[in-house]
């Protein structure tokens, strides 16, 4: 908003009287001059003042000038894209809590698609993930409040609250005929970003649920821990339902697997929004065969990592198409303690692909599913099924649990099979 418009809290007629001189001052004096991009459009300002006056005079309830002007600013930003927003003091604090990784809520990342409040992804081990919420679920109501007219930040504020309090979300899921309601109890959401384990001797699993400041270091430490059990013949990097996070953390994770080349670059209108990030020569796992799992809940920083590893031919990307959130938001504090969250640039993969509204296409398409045991196979008895059988020295003690998990998670099972095949082929080439 123009500096001359700041702090207006007078009558609508005074507002119009002040708006018009500002607009006229912005007009170039020479009649033949070409209008500058910075000139304020007189007719639009007149229309704004007229709308302002009519609301003040005729709206069913009295509305103060400050509320109307803030609503105008909210509308101005919300109409740009789903991620730009005007942040009042409470919303600014809420954003800081998210950045710090601890807040009271149910643990979902949300955005807007086609004007609807949509789940981008549930965060691991939170009320939302345990209740069964899924990526692309459309949230119709938060308790008794319809989401149709809520801003993204208003919806987030409603979903957050004191730990121990209940919340109900009414959602519509693609492919279903009727909405369903999930009732959950809010918890303190503390997001641990990295988890790792050995699926089998020599084959590691690395889960990154979101990108926080220390995620790169945590990935390096997790790989080192797994390598203490023996050399890694393959690694699954699971970025499914990862909503993104800190850009520098995504660069650090990609750098764990790359020893050279571009990771990501950004383009915007201002010089300071154009950045390029490249891999360093210090690399924790430059040669370990790698499968990267993505799905529709993989967004932003997760897509940066997947796109970099795919373009650099460092790993095989498997799963389903990612979310397609390839824009950069800058937080801009305002002098009154409030702020703006403004989209200022777009991400591009090393090969020049825009992630925005495109997403990352997997090299190998594997949809979510469950491995069903073939009929009659349960009748076959093997040595491992006999009670009291001797364990192989190489047999993981959680083999039964892992087997069940791989049956439940078809994509993970296929990733492990692909790693084994890659390992066999590499041995033949030696």
Automatic annotation (TrEMBL):
Residues 92-160 form the PDZ domain. SMART domains: PDZ (SM00228), TSPc (SM00245). Residues 1-33 form the signal peptide. The keyword Aminoacyl-tRNA synthetase does not apply. Keywords: Hydrolase, Protease, Serine protease, Signal. The keyword rRNA-binding does not apply. Gene3D superfamilies: 2-enoyl-CoA Hydratase, Chain A, domain 1 (3.90.226.10), 2.30.42.10, 3.30.750.44. Belongs to the peptidase S41A family. This is S41 family peptidase. It comes from Halomonas kalidii.
């Amino acid at each position: 908003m123009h500096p001359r418009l700041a702090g207006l809290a007078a009558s609508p007629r005074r507002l119009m009287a002040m708006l018009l001189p500002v607009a006229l001052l912005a007009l170039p004096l020479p009649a033949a001059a070409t209008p500058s991009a910075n000139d304020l459009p007189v007719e639009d300002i007149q229309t704004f003042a007229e709308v302002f006056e009519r609301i003040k005079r005729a709206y069913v309830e009295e509305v103060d000038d400050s509320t109307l002007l803030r609503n105008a600013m909210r509308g101005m930003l919300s109409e740009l894209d789903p991620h730009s927003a005007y942040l009042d003091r409470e919303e600014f604090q809420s954003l800081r809590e998210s950045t710090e990784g601890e807040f009271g809520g149910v643990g979902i990342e949300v955005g807007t698609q086609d004007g609807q409040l949509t789940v981008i992804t549930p965060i691991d081990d939170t009320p939302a993930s345990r209740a069964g919420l899924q990526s692309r679920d459309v949230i119709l109501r938060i308790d008794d409040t319809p989401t149709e007219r809520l801003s993204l930040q208003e919806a987030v504020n409603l979903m957050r609250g004191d730990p121990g309090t209940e919340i109900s979300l009414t959602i519509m899921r693609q492919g279903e005929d009727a909405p369903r309601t999930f009732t959950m109890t809010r918890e303190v959401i503390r997001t641990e970003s990295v988890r790792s384990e050995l699926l089998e001797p020599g084959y590691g699993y690395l889960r990154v649920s979101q990108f926080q400041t220390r995620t790169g270091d945590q990935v390096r430490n997790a790989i080192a821990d797994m390598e203490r059990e023996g050399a890694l013949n393959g690694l699954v990097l699971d970025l499914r339902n990862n909503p993104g996070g800190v850009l520098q953390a995504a660069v650090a994770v990609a750098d764990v697997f790359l020893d050279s080349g571009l990771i990501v670059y950004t383009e915007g209108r201002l010089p300071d929004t154009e950045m390029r990030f490249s891999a360093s020569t210090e690399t924790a796992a430059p040669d370990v065969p790698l499968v990267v799992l993505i799905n529709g809940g993989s967004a932003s920083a997760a897509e940066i990592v997947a796109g970099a590893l795919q373009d650099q031919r460092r790993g095989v990307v498997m799963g389903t198409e990612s979310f397609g959130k390839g824009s950069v938001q800058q937080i801009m504090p305002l002098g009154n303690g409030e702020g703006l969250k403004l989209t200022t640039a777009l991400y591009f993969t090393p090969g020049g692909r825009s992630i925005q509204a495109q997403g990352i296409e997997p090299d190998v398409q594997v949809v979510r599913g469950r491995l069903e045991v073939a009929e009659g196979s349960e009748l076959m008895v093997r040595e491992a099924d006999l009670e009291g059988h001797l364990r192989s020295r190489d047999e993981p003690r959680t083999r039964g649990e892992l087997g069940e998990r791989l049956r439940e998670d078809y994509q993970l099972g296929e990733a492990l099979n692909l790693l084994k095949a890659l390992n066999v082929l590499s041995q033949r080439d030696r």
